[in-house]
Amino acid sequence: MIEIIPGLGISERELSFSCDRSPGPGGQNVNKTHTRVTLIFDVNGSVSLSSQQKRRVCDALAGRVSREGVLRVVSCKERTQLANRRAAVNRFIELIGQAFQTPKPRKETSVPAAAQRRRLNGKLQRSAVKQLRREKVAVED
């Protein structure tokens, strides 16, 4: 069981891994070993998450979850498959944990008086420049 946040864990059986050749570090070894690890988690098919939690994960990670509801996390930074697997699991825990964090409510603030004055002065200066450009000069013969 992988604990995401206190009170929420996801079974390791729900995660599947696939390995490919990595474009990352490893020298000549990278050409013959499969060190890139892709962690695959079916959000919609998960038994560890409630329907509300599934919806929250899909909404928070909309750019990472496919239309079928599958979350993919790829790691290829390390030189070994085992290290990349650990990195992928850690990134997965981080992503799912962020999905369940509630954002701080935004505190309404007013624009400071000095900033308001600077903005208005800038507008006045720009207006004056444009006004000077508009004036026509009369040409007498």
Rg, Cα atoms, Å: 28 Å
Distance between the termini: 94 Å
Q: State the order of secondary-structure elements, H for helix, E for strand.
A: EEEEHEHH
How do the strands of the widest beta sheet line up side by side?
3-4-5
The helix tally amounts to 3
Give the overall pLDDT as a whole number.
82
Q: Structural class of the helices, strands and pairings?
A: alpha+beta
Largest sheet: 3 strands, antiparallel
| Residues in helices, as a percent range | 25-40%
* Low-confidence sequence ranges: none
- Strand fraction band? 15-25%
Could you say which overall geometry the principal axes of the C-alpha atoms support?
A: elongated
- What is the second-level CATH architecture of one domain? 2-Layer Sandwich
> Can you identify the CATH class of one domain?
Alpha Beta
Say what the CATH topology of one domain is.
Double Stranded RNA Binding Domain
Q: Would you report the number of β strands?
A: 5
